[in-house]
């Protein structure tokens, strides 16, 4: 049986994301902001490696366009840091199963909000 070349990478990513809450819950002595910073730093290192690989394959126009959008990348990093901080703080203030359920319902919440916003927009048309 032939495996997809990225199967191991995908498996590692799923394990890393799904185990973070359990690992953080075991580190009760570490402040939430420190845990969030560690997670953000690890994410930055991993994403940087992928970005460097992608950068090598870009032509000069694509690189110029990427630099023009650097402010969006920085803003998304700030949002990610805020997300990690809130997530770890919430994990300290609720049980692990509740935290996982809340995080898992995010796509459902996004769809419900999207339908609500789209419905409101369609009424104005």
Structure explained in plain terms:
This protein is mainly alpha-helical. The protein folds into two domains: 7-93, no CATH class; 95-125. The chain is built from six helices and no strands. α2 runs antiparallel to α4. The longest helix is centred in the middle third of the chain and has 25 residues, at 32-56. The chain is globular, with a radius of gyration of 19 Å. The mean pLDDT is 78.
> How large is the share of residues in beta strands?
under 5%
Q: How many strands, which pairing sense, and closed or not: the largest β-sheet? A: none
How many helices in DSSP terms? Answer: 6
Helicity level, as a percent range?
A: over 70%
Q: How many domains, as an integer?
A: 2
Structural class: mainly alpha
Shape call: globular
Order of helices and strands: HHHHHH
Q: Give the distance, in angstroms, between the N- and C-terminal Cα atoms.
A: 54 Å
The residue-averaged pLDDT reads 78
Instruction: Report the count of strand segments.
Output: 0
Radius of gyration: 19 Å
Low-confidence stretches: none
Give the helices and strands, then pairings.
Elements: H1 7-26, H2 32-56, H3 60-68, H4 70-92, H5 96-104, H6 106-124
Briefly characterize the structure.
This protein has 125 residues and is mostly helical. The chain has six helices and no strands.
Which terms summarize this structure?
125 residues, 2 domains, mainly alpha, single chain, 6 helices
């Amino acid at each position: 049986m032939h495996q997809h070349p990225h199967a191991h990478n995908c498996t590692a990513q799923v394990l890393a994301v799904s185990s973070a809450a359990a690992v953080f819950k075991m580190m009760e002595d570490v402040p939430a902001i420190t845990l969030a910073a560690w997670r953000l730093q690890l994410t930055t290192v991993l994403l940087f490696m992928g970005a460097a690989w992608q950068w090598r394959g870009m032509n000069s126009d694509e690189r110029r366009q990427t630099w023009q959008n650097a402010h969006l990348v920085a803003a998304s990093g700030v949002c990610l840091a805020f997300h990690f901080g809130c997530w770890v703080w919430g994990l300290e203030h609720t049980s692990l199963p509740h935290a996982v359920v809340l995080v898992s319902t995010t796509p459902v919440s996004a769809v419900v909000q999207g339908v609500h916003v789209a419905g409101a927009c369609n009424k104005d048309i």
